[in-house]
Fold each of these.
Amino acid sequence: MSRKLPLFKMKSIVKSSRVNRAWLNDHVNDPYVKQAQKEGYRARAAYKLKEIDETLHLIRPGHLVVDLGAAPGAWCQYVSRKLMPKTPTLPTTARAGSRIIALDILPMVAIDGVEIIQGDIGDLRVTALLAEQLQGQRADVVLSDMAPNLSGHGAVDAARIESLVELALDFALMHLKPDGALVAKVFHGSSYDDLFRRFQEGFGAVKRIKPKASRDKSAETYLVGLRPQFPHRHRLDGGVSPL
């Protein structure tokens, strides 16, 4: 004998189904999704980084770029095309000096020219491996599009978001060049002001950018820290940076 679902549960399922259909419809008709498919990007997120980069001119051939939370790889694809374009006008030496290092807890399909590490940035063994992969170099740009799986509980989600941004910030301040930059996704909420203050303390200048490719309903925005300030960081030669 079949059992009927309670009315409140049936309403919840119907509502969820409607939401999923609406999201799918929006996604399929999204101009950035269509453009990503046309240009071979793995996700529409590539256009967020593209707008940030075209606004601030952060990424140039010869740079070392570290992408935190890289999967599925759209940002790495954009960086790869920018650093290593298939054009005879760019000197071979500039292409050869470019490096991209990607880190994500999820597996990622290989991209030409991208060094991929799978692991959790919150694991000290993984961050040590990432630092080792730099091979003594400082990064020109650190990217972080990391976001946690949201639970729906405001305080819990805010803490998770803040933790990821702080991990990216700590890594960037330890490994960026003096004229380097950090691009990090943040969300407007209870932790936003604290994170913005930390950026102000860590960088000579901070820019806030909401790319057009960010969905209208999304609370996400991007903080870009320029010219890191690291008076207590040790130099590669073992000395201490001046105050």
Note: Residues 126 and 132 are 10 Å apart (CA to CA).
Amino acid sequence: MRRMGTQWMVGRFGQGRAQVQRGFCLALSTAALSIVSLCAAVLAMAMWTPVPSQAGTPCVEAVFFDLGNTLIEDNGSGTFELRVGAAQTVSDLQDAGIRLGIITNVPGSWDIDDLRAIMAEPEFLDEFEVVILSSEAPASKPNPAIYIFAHEALAAPRPPITSAAFVGETLSEIANAEVDPTLGARSVGMIGIHLSDAPPSPLTDYTIPTDDLGQVVSIVDETCGSADVGFGHVSSTSSSRIFAPKPNPSSGNSRISFNVAAPGDAQSVHTRVGIYDAQGRNLAVLLDRVLSAGRHEVVWDGRTDGEPVSSGVYFARLQTDRHVQQVPVLRIK
């Protein structure tokens, strides 16, 4: 997996924002009680697919995870290890160009070093663009303020909060009501993905089994299957695809792989790969010619017109006759 440039969000915000004044509450424990029933046991033995409870879910362009009992779990000695499927799920989402973050409740005195100290693989945190600790945020989950805080911590340009999903095993951190929730991720417009072996709840948009975190990737594909332009999503009419650059972020060369699918019986297609800024201006053309169908790669050295670009977020855009898609490219000095 690539190591993302993680932003540690430090400092406390006041309560002056009108959008988060309502619903402030005491922090809830990150540990969730697992609800296991005979029905759930039967469902767990079946072939699971994500179960949506809401229609018309927006395209998921960013995913925030709870940490404890979602991505990591106690091995019995007080050290937390990665749950099965966590590393692969994160890697697959990175390859799809999805923005990634963590939102976790911790003791009030903790900082990121305390969190790293209890993890068997602390470097795993570096895979996320932002890691939000409740001790360094305006409030704890399920207060709406922490979800807004996490979304705004993403580097601009960021997808709308309604295109961000929250994945966790604690249902109360997703919503406290089916309609117009005042607490949890869905109260601010995020898409809720509940990790549970219990029957699907109307409080969440999707329910996935606890032993198949990879279903998050399926949800991203499902919600974005018809998107023509997005942060790494494939249109439903083409299997052409651009992948997240490696490394990302980078201060040197960024290698950008992409797949080209030719329509019908054709063996080739005119393909253009360019670098764009947040305003949609074309800064560099990396490739503009006819290519055979298949996998290809280009390299961007971080320059435009011979001069290095400033640190920030740029976009590598793949364009063919039938397909337009882009992924974020993070440049650092």
Note: The domain at 241-331 is CATH 2.60.40.10 (Immunoglobulin-like).
